[in-house]
Amino acid sequence: MAEIVFTGSTVTLLREDGRSFAFALVPPMEANINQGKLSVGAPLGKALLGRRKGEEFSFDAPGGPVHMKVLDIQPGSG
């Protein structure tokens, strides 16, 4: 298990509305949200870098602030 979120991590998040989801944090040129790959340059990607499992945080989404919790972090495969 990874200790902190970095480029290449697969992160599972819990939204404040109770839904959870997972994606890989990738460089901008590899980003494809339909394939579960979020850019480190996206607002959520920037907010995630350096976070730890169990940490709660907020970030500014286009629709306003969103609160989330890091449920799990898996290291990248490369």
Which consecutive residue ranges, at least 5 long each, have pLDDT under 50? Answer: none
Give the CATH topology. Answer: Chitinase A, domain 3
Can you identify the CATH superfamily?
Transcription elongation factor, GreA/GreB, C-terminal domain
Question: Structural class, judged by helices and strands?
Answer: mainly beta
Overall tally of domains: 1
Total beta strands: 5
Tell me the β content: 35-45%
Top CATH class: Alpha Beta
First-residue to last-residue Cα separation: 15 Å
Helix fraction bin: under 10%
Major β-sheet strand ordering: 3-2-1-5-4
Give a topology summary.
Elements: E1 10-15, E2 20-26, E3 37-39, H1 43-48, E4 56-61, E5 64-74
Parallel strand pairs: 2-3
Antiparallel strand pairs: 1-2, 1-5, 4-5
Question: Which descriptors would you attach to this protein?
Answer:
mainly beta; Chitinase A, domain 3; 8% helix; 5-stranded mixed β-sheet; 78 residues
Short description:
By secondary structure, the chain is mainly beta. The chain is built from 1 helix and 5 strands.
Architecture overview:
The protein is mainly beta and 78 residues long. The protein has one domain (10-74): Transcription elongation factor, GreA/GreB, C-terminal domain (Chitinase A, domain 3, Roll), CATH 3.10.50. Helix content is 8%, strand content 42%. It is built from one helix and five strands. The protein has a five-stranded mixed β-sheet. The longest helix is centred in the middle third of the chain and has 6 residues, at 43-48. The protein is globular. The two termini are 15 Å apart.
